[in-house]
Specification:
27 helices; mainly alpha
């Protein structure tokens, strides 16, 4: 009697047919079986993704169950994904988002589950693959359900990978602004939630306090003047990134478009100072096409001579920065070079072109974002190499090789290493400090050692008190937090109940001065002796509340 033949395992295609043939629990069970099979064997060389996409594109109400089955299969595959299958499944996201507006309710529900599965599966470094798909599906030509789904996914991705999302704000802001004013309430509501998450990725503590105001202004242009004034009052202590520029651009555009001299002056001042606070001049180039024409127009049309002068100065500053940025552009990662680095360091990955493209996109995104920490690169490469059969230790070595090559290609120069010193280093940071629209310190290095005493030397109004206050309030990026270094700021301040008095009146009101029978003329003479003059930065008859810390000490 011949031995019975062993049961032949079903192909991916056969298992997917089983999914499309079932419904309810049977369909879900078949989808789970398909996902388990794919997890075990991978998708390299499999026609499955193409078959699922064809099912998603099936037209007509009678094909609704087929489209729904494709969504159920996609959600199951995402939930049971491996690093290699993740790369192949990214190609289906656009169809999934489109299916959120399917006329068949069953398809909509299944598509919603698939979108959530994508959000859970996504690698933060893969945003360069996923964000463009979301952006495409936020277009006004799309049905509102699709737009809401794209916005929801975008928000989830921002929560999951804020550092990787921030560089995308430049491209996202125009569409987000449009969604915030959409006529459909559901779109507007989701856009508001997503915009808050996107602005949180900017990572600039200085503008945290006005993020909600920026969103309100995007939705309600009547709040423009009020919001510009709030923004102008910010004390900057951090370098401004391209993401921060992108966040404030809609506000500045509306401010200039109001065509009010005072408002245009304020916007011009903010533009000039924010551009100075950008570490890389090339980063300021991204918002120049939107702001420069408005600034040029304001320089020609503002009637007030002083305000027009501010606009002209800002325009001149922008042109200088533009020139520097164009002379030294940010070097973008080249896909062909990156693929060569990847296949050279981990040859086994080269067997799957889809996977190599996926890893390449993630590595290019990290390079363009100037993220060169090994942990970030490890997340974007090691699991994928290991899934291809590369030993984990070898995968980490390959990742370091790719990282070094990419960093070298980017043109980043390492900071010089300081000589070792015996004293413990408390702080070694680079920061920027401004008060309102006045830049006090830009890209300034501060290095402090335990056991040393330091003094701040500088002329009046240069920012000594503002710096000390910012350190005490934990607003200087890189300064140790209170758990490491306790900071106490003893402020030279005026008595609150006397803040309405002039400088002369404040001195005359002092009990010791009264007891010595010192008169107004004597007080004025002494104030003159230490720099208080009618034509100086501090005048004897100015209110004491207007003085900087240095003048108050005097």
């Amino acid at each position: 009697v011949p031995w019975p033949r062993p049961a032949r395992s079903m192909s991916h295609s056969d298992l997917f047919k089983k999914v499309t043939a079932g419904d309810g629990d049977a369909r879900q069970a078949a989808a789970n079986e398909l996902a388990a099979a794919v997890k075990a064997s991978g998708l390299k060389g499999s026609p499955l993704v193409g078959e699922i996409k064809a099912a998603m594109e099936a037209q007509g109400k009678k094909d609704g169950p087929t489209r729904a089955a494709a969504m159920v299969a996609t959600a199951a595959l995402c939930k049971e994904h491996t690093p290699t299958t993740e790369a192949h499944l990214a190609a289906l996201l656009g169809e999934v988002l489109n299916s959120l507006s399917d006329k068949v309710k069953e398809v909509q529900v299944a598509a919603d589950a698939a979108v959530k599965a994508y959000a859970e599966m996504a690698n933060g470094a893969a945003l360069n693959v996923l964000v463009p798909v979301c952006l495409e599906n936020m277009d006004s030509t799309k049905k509102w359900q699709t737009v809401v789904g794209a916005l929801m996914l975008l928000g989830e991705l921002a929560d999951k990978a804020p550092s990787q999302m921030a560089p995308h704000l430049t491209d996202l802001m125009p569409s987000m602004t449009s969604c915030l004013t959409d006529l459909k309430a559901q779109v507007k509501e989701q856009a508001q939630v997503t915009m808050k998450k996107l602005l949180d990725t900017v990572g600039n503590k200085d503008i945290e306090k006005v993020l909600d105001d920026l969103i309100v202004n995007m939705m309600d242009p009547t709040k423009t003047e009020e919001t510009v004034h709030k923004y102008a009052g910010i004390v900057f202590v951090q370098v401004v990134t391209a993401a921060a520029l992108a966040a404030v651009t809609p506000l500045l555009k509306r401010g200039f478009q109001e065509r009010k001299d005072a408002l245009s002056r304020m916007c011009a001042k903010i533009v000039a100072n924010m551009s100075k606070l950008v570490e890389e001049p090339a980063e300021a180039l991204v918002f120049m096409p939107q702001i420069m024409p408005l600034l040029e127009k304001a320089s020609e049309e503002v009637s007030d001579p002083e305000a027009r002068g501010v606009c002209e100065d800002a325009l001149e500053q922008m042109n200088r920065i533009k020139k520097k940025g164009e002379e030294r552009p940010l070097r973008k990662a080249e896909a062909d070079k990156m693929k060569a680095h990847i296949t050279g360091a981990a040859s086994k990955a080269g067997d799957d072109p889809v996977l190599v493209d996926y890893i390449c996109t993630m590595c290019c995104a990290l390079t363009d974002s100037r993220m060169f920490d090994f942990d970030d690169w490890e997340e974007a490469t090691v699991p994928y190499f290991v899934a291809c059969g590369v030993d984990e230790a070898a995968a980490k070595t390959a990742t370091q090789t790719i990282l070094d090559a990419a960093k070298n290609d980017s043109g980043i120069n390492d900071e010089p290493v300081d000589e070792d010193e015996d004293a413990e280093e408390l702080c070694n940071c680079k920061f920027t400090l401004a008060y309102g629209t006045k830049i006090l310190l830009f890209n300034t290095d501060m290095r402090l050692k335990r056991g040393y005493r330091y003094g701040l030397l500088g002329k009046n109004d240069c920012g000594k008190t503002t710096l000390m206050r910012s350190v005490a309030e934990g607003k200087v990026e890189g300064f140790p937090d209170p758990s490491e270094v306790r900071t106490v700021f003893v402020e030279a301040d005026i008595m609150g109940e006397k803040s309405h008095l002039t400088c002369v009146e404040y001195v005359l009101d002092d009990p010791a001065i009264k007891a010595a029978n010192i008169n107004e003329e004597m007080v004025t003479a002494q104030l003159n002796a230490v720099g208080f003059h009618e034509n100086a930065a501090a005048r004897p008859n100015d209110a004491v509340s207007t003085l900087s810390g240095g003048w108050r000490m005097k």
